[in-house]
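Handoff note, outgoing to incoming analyst
You'll be picking up this chain. Sequence as last confirmed:
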Amino acid sequence: MPSSPHQPDALLRRLEWTVIRRLDGLLQGDYRTLFRGFGLDLADLREYQPYDDVRHIDWNVTARTQVPHVRVYNEDREVTAWFLLDLSPSVDFGSGEVSKRQVLTEFTAVVARLLTRQGNKVGAILYNGVSDFVVPPRAGRRHVLGLLEQVFSRPRLLRAPATDLGAFLGRSLGAIRRRSLIFVVSDFISKPGWERGLSMLARRHEGIAVRLLDPLDMALPDVGLLTFQDAETGEQLFVDTTDKSFRRRFADGAARSEEAQMEAFAKAGMDVLELSTHDDLVDAILRFAEMRKAQSRLNGDSGLPPHLSPAAAQQGGGAP
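Most recent structure output, in case you need it:
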């Protein structure tokens, strides 16, 4: 259903007052804590010199050439960020008053505004399970409002083919030419194979996986007979939630799925920000910032993305 032009402005005003204002005070403007690798651009590769920081050695190139090489970075304060937004039907789910789509929209609004207030550009690619819509990167509050208008105006599909997140990530990789900060915002309920697309994105860009969750994704309450409907195919299934063995099998399957997702994120070298429909957005972002800060200390405060960190290098990580 098309949105009112006042919806994005009302949402952004509310978030600027209730979320962005709180983050300003708590992060004290240190958004590099939140976006590690902020403004780092790979400029060159050259042979290692005795005065170079060993943490910048490119181990893949060193292994191929048998000569130590280091990565040279330029710090560019202007960042281009892209939001890859999964708006497929499963994202419309929410067991309470808040849906995953609402969480996605509010997260995008907050982070896009944090970035554009610093003069950075933000763009987005919206995927509804059928087609993509590209919002080219620009700066400014008005642009953020335009981006939100596109999110609001994307129709909620009652039926759609099974989500193919891997194909979407592959198309996005081809569309984003310049090294950027990438937020992949999805519940990652998809056909198998999306892990490869995520890894390819992480090699070229600094990527953050934003995982949308709802408590009912992980466990079912004992509430009697329920009708389950697949959000994408429309297929319905009657289940008896009083059956303890059924609830246990459901929880076991959800745990296996979560384990596979987290393994895929780790292999891609992507940090994960988990956003639940029952969570406070500020608390979730601050937990993520603290996690990034702790990882930065473990990586020797190199300021590098995780797949370029010394720990990753020792495991043969880093882009080829």
